[in-house]
Amino acid sequence: MKGKLAYIETWGCQLNYHRSEMIAGNLVEYGYKITDEISEADLIVFNTCAVREKSEEKVRGRVGQIKDARKEGSLLGVGGCMAQHLGEDLTESSSGVDFVFGTANLSDILELADRARDGDRPVETPHPEGFEDLPVRRNSDYFAWVTIADGCSNGCSYCIVPQVRGPLRSRPPEAVLNEVRSLVDDGYKEIQLLGQNVNAYGKEVEGNVDFAWLLERAAKTGAGRLSFTTPHPADMDLRTLEVMKDFSNVPRHVHLPLQSGSDRVLEIMNRNYSKSDYLDLVETAREMDPEINITTDLIVGHPGEREEDFQETLEVIRNVQFGSVYVAKFSPRPNTLSATMKDDVPAEEKDRRLQEVLEVQKKSSRDFNDIYLDRTSEVLVEGKARGEGLYYGKNEFNKTVTFPASGNPRGEFVTVEVRAKENGTLTGTLKESVKDDTNSHVKSRL
Q1: Can you name the residues that pair with 297 across neighbouring β-strands?
Q2: For 197-229, b where at least 16 C-beta lie within 10 A, e where not — what string?
Q3: What is the C-alpha to C-alpha distance for residues 243 and 250, in angstroms, rounded to an integer?
Q4: What domains can be seen in the chain, in order of their start residue?
Q5: CB contact at 8 A, 298 and 258
Q6: d(CA 363, CA 349)
Q7: Phi and psi for 303 in degrees, rounded to 5?
Q8: How many whole angstroms separate alpha carbon 391 and alpha carbon 396?
Q9: Rounded to whole angstroms, how far apart are CA atoms 68 and 76?
């Protein structure tokens, strides 16, 4: 196997990208080298998403697209969420797929590749349970993901995640905290805690361990910045908001997927909160930190969504003033409750509603973003931006900031005087670099 090259391509959420780091780590441990050129690869791995039908269409198209670029004798394995729910349908419908793995058996990839090399077309998608302990080949030297939970037990009517990822499973807290401490010792500047429903952490285990408990202890490790995604509004509690306020290395940002502003549609979606519950949560968060950046997800055109329901969603956008909104048209997923409902919103109406959300949100976020101007902001630099000598990064509100700088400050905390905004991005000038010693960039909040 010495000298073999592997290529990995990923679709979907942060959890998927982190799992691809695990796939890479495992392959490297067994002698592979990772390449960015698909034409060089002896082994090609697609780690897929199933949250929307469009994601699956992209993967199918990509399988055909790479046919002529593949090295002779190379193998293509397709895994992840799409593979978990399609199984043998993938090999039957896509001649270019040599083997299929699921969401819970990344460690089987090499064995499946060996079987494919011997002429088999194996499909293995075991039911997700527990956690695989695999080495990680991280793609960044300053930003690191740490999975704290996998799966979800909420049962939202439109969501395929419980099928493909299994029920909620929380990692042992000491395993999580030891990984965070190790990353801090290795010099990582931002650590992001991951879970499909990250703030449901600990719900299925005995004892007093919950997400707020874990977040507080992780914040105390000395991590420069400790973020998390994605929480569920029904599981967001006061204690978590208090930890966010008390520890300034936890960003002043929370992503709270609303999905709809209509109680009627929220009930159809089985979201387990009402519009007033959500607005009360926003009010509490803003009472504790008036400048907190709240972002959200929305689905337009879910079965049963009437025009008056949609107008209620627009009204929530105007009232809350989200920092950003990620909006998608309803996409029925196999074996979900929503897929059994009549898809009664025409495609052109879904398109109209999506565009209207974007227009309303653009004005709303433009108004709210004014609070981030004419102030200093702590930015973790991610790389070069468009324009000569420009760099960009995220600040403590998880807002993108661009600024001119000499040298290469990538991966460093810098202080930027934010002076303007352009197309949703804040712009400013570099004031100073933040010293790279313990907690030097953890500033007190007003």
Answers
A1: 326
A2: bbbbbbeeeeeebbbbbbbbbbbebebbbbbbb
A3: 8
A4: 5-124 (3.40.50.12160), 373-433 (2.40.50.140)
A5: yes
A6: 22
A7: -50, 130
A8: 16
A9: 13
Largest CA distance in the chain: 65
C-alpha to C-alpha distance for 83 and 99, rounded to whole angstroms: 10
Tokens of 309: 């329901």
Taking the complete model, does pTM exceed 0.70, yes or no? yes
- Omega within 30 of 0 (cis) for the link into 147: no
Give residue 411's identity as a one-letter amino acid code: G
| pLDDT above 70: percentage of residues in the chain | 96
Q: 244: how many CB neighbours lie within 10 A of its CB? A: 24
Nearest in space to 194 (alpha carbons), one of 166, 226, 229, 152: 229
Contact criterion met (CB below 8 Å) for 380 and 142: yes
Q: How far apart are CA 103 and CA 386, in angstroms?
A: 37
SS3 417: strand
Residue matched to tokens 């202080």: 415
* Omega cis (within 30) before 240: no
Q: Encoding tokens for residue 171?
A: 């990692």
Number of alpha carbons in the 13 Å side-chain half-sphere of residue 150? 22
β-bridge pairing 99-101 and 75-80: parallel
What's the confidence (pLDDT) of residue 440?
A: 36
- Gap between the Cα atoms of 389 and 429, Å rounded: 12
What's the pLDDT at 425? 87
- Please give the structure tokens belonging to residue 122: 């194996």
At 432 the pLDDT is 65
DSSP, collapsed to helix, strand or coil, labels residue 144 as: strand
Work out whether strand 253-255 and strand 293-300 pair parallel, antiparallel, or are unpaired. Answer: parallel
CB-based contact 20:46 (threshold 8 Å): no
